[in-house]
Specification:
This protein has 294 residues and is an alpha/beta fold. It is 36% helix and 20% strand. The termini are far apart.
């Protein structure tokens, strides 16, 4: 498949997926999303200054922006910090073409050309250097995450970046996020761009506390989650209420192998019989109150 770059507002590029009918990033900026949705909420600058080794798990590696931004941020804060990265991706051609087209060239590193390292990573699915060990696991993330769990890997930061829940509910289910949470260090943080109530409910059922992160070029925030409730940014009142509507009914996939259609249908059926407040009523209440942001 040939992936054609699309310019975003911050000067970085993304690709469009015909399979999911979505771009990999917001048009407000792929680099901005990496920084404000993942790197800063996971406190990677601070963690790098305090530790000589950091473990990262990048779920849905895609073009590689989140991992590239993380590596650059860590080494800018502590050039001697050793990084252990595991990345999950369905289609390796995405990262290969992003690297070959030079889309990650703007990320700098004190340990050689980071863009070249990431091109090698995309081509060989592994990197071994004095400061970086990285592995790219290809295939359905639902099976690959179980491999990560069995390995005993515990990440200081997890980047959860699938396509949107309606387009790819397989990677937002209670069962999948329960597996993901097993890969998080007790003091680690999980970040995602999604603020969907269904996703936040699933994170809660996985044993995680969560807060809101700032939006990037749009009104909706992202989500940061941790086993520790301390220092998590608070939710707005409307976000808390959203968790008590039918929108908060999570996606389910008991055996981690159901189709998108089956997962969506199951959730629709559960919402139809739910006694929770209709989401439309919640939305109307908050959008009518002009003193409160939507």
């Amino acid at each position: 498949m040939s992936w054609q770059p699309r310019l975003t507002d911050d000067g970085s590029f993304t690709f469009y997926s015909g399979l999911f009918d979505e771009c990999f990033h917001s048009f407000h900026g792929a680099r901005q999303e990496a920084k404000y949705k993942y790197i800063e909420p996971c406190q990677l600058y601070q963690k790098a200054q305090e530790n000589d080794c950091l473990h990262l798990l990048d779920i849905c590696y895609g073009l590689g922006y989140n991992s590239a931004a993380a590596i650059a941020a860590i080494w800018s804060a502590n050039p001697t910090c050793y990084i252990r990265l595991i990345a999950l991706e369905l289609d390796v051609t995405v990262s290969q073409q992003a690297a070959s087209q030079g889309l990650l060239a703007s990320f700098s590193s004190p340990h050689g050309d980071l863009s070249s390292l990431l091109r090698e990573f995309a081509d060989t699915q592994k990197l071994r250097s004095p400061q970086l060990q990285a592995d790219l696991y290809l295939g359905d993330a639902r099976s690959q995450i179980q491999k990560v769990v069995r390995s005993g890997f515990h990440a200081d930061a997890i980047f959860l970046d699938p396509f949107s829940p309606p387009k790819c509910p397989q990677l937002w289910t209670v069962e999948f996020l329960a597996q993901v949470s097993q890969c998080l260090h007790p003091k680690g943080r999980l970040a995602t761009y999604s603020s969907a109530a269904a996703v936040r409910t699933a994170l809660s059922q996985a044993g995680l506390f969560f807060g809101a992160t700032q939006g990037v070029g749009r009104r909706s925030p992202g989500t940061i989650a941790s086993f520790l409730p301390n220092d998590l940014p608070p939710l707005l009142p409307q976000e808390r209420e959203h968790l008590h509507t039918r929108a908060a009914i999570p996606y389910r996939d008991a055996n981690l192998n159901d189709s998108r259609a089956t997962i969506l249908q199951r959730r629709d059926q559960e919402r139809e019989i739910s006694h929770l407040e209709p989401t439309s009523r919640w939305k109307k209440r908050w959008t009518q109150n002009k003193s409160i942001p939507e």
